[in-house]
Structure of UDP-glucose 6-dehydrogenase:
Amino acid sequence: MPLKITVIGTGYLGATHAAAMAELGFEVLGLDVVPEKIEMLQRGEVPMYEPGLEELLRRHVAGIEGSSGRLRFTTSYEEAGAFGDVHFVCVNTPQKHGEYACDMSYVETAFASLAPYLTRPTLVVGKSTVPVGSAARLAERLTALAPAGEAAELAWNPEFLREGFAVQDTLHPDRIVVGVASERAEELLREVYATPIGEGSPFIVMDYPTSELVKTSANSFLATKISFINAMAEVCEAAGGDVVKLAEAIGHDERIGKKFLRAGIGFGGGCLPKDIRAFMARAGELGADQALTFLREVDSINMRRRGHMVELTRDAVGGGFLGKRVAVLGATFKPDSDDVRDSPALNVAGQIHLQGGQVTVYDPKGMENARRLFPTLGYADTALEAVRGADVVLHLTEWREFRELDPGTLGEVVSERRILDGRNALDPDLWRKAGWTYRALGRPQA
Ligand code: UDX
């Protein structure tokens, strides 16, 4: 009998994982406590924008014409407990309000809700990003709460998917990391990944704490790389250098590499910012806070870039925002996503609005979420409408649509042909040739 799989939590991670497991031939039951989400998923609709996910989901959701029928959804833990041989926990671990630590309440609730229904040998696999030490503690709770006792085992299997590439990253991971406490758990996970998913991907087995640390250290490294290049952008600005050329040149050294060296208004989203903060908080609890003090600097360089973008904009419009119209292109924390969590673009837009600027935002996919989070900002339905009458245009999320804009057409409707590129993603020559004053972070003005 092929293994039956449940996926608990149907956000970016869980919805993608559930659909991917069905694609690989497993019978899958997805669980979420929000009934509206489950209703949407059952109709084959994805509650967020993630390229390729809806198509993948519709290929498998039961009841959809032509689907494999291998994927169903529920809100019932009882049903999930009875169904699954392997349960993947994919719930969110957001930052606690007003604290650095992460909020483990969704993970705790998921374990406490599932455990009473684990009556036969099962494997629960944590995928959420958690503070190191959580897996060992959760394994004990599982044994204590599950009727199956020690036959209800735990493994930790961190997920490294990027939003915007969730389907591709899940179906073709660059590594599979598993933290286990028994051979049986390792064997079961090998069985799950002994599918096309694992082909060509190193399968790395380790203990619980190391597997938890792999995830937080990987994200810390990525955040550090971005803040490093943004620190170089600050120095370039002071010295008259060009950070884009600098990044290109240092990136040719394979030990450094070209990726994640794009200077701009920095990182945001539901992962990197909260993960480095939670990592610092956890290190403090463990008495290892000194080891991670550099992450404090990584965080502050990152936040400083947002403030710097606001300052540059203020200078560009003559020193004050009152009566000035500012067009903002981009609201999401990165392109190809509708996610606005901790979005640098919206943070900059919000600061300018608070300082009296008249801000109009346009984003290809993030408008609904942006409106919900920042209802007082102005919004337009197209880039052209957003820039109409603008004294300055800010490019804050590097969507392809923005790179393909015609500066000539936009130039006809703005009040001033002035653009600040907060992502170093537009072609300066193209804009300058069309009569715009183009300025970017970390680059000389002309
Ligand atoms: C990240 C990790 O990449 C992923 O492995 C992990 O599983 C979850 O966290 P994600 O949050 O989807 O993924 O976004 P990512 O592509 O890492 O970008 C994060 C932020 O960094 C974005 O705001 C992006 O604009 C910014 N960034 C990225 C830069 O400012 N410069 C860069 O060179 C790269």
Q: What stands out?
A: The radius of gyration is 24 Å. DSSP finds 18 helices and 14 strands in the chain. The mean pLDDT is 97.
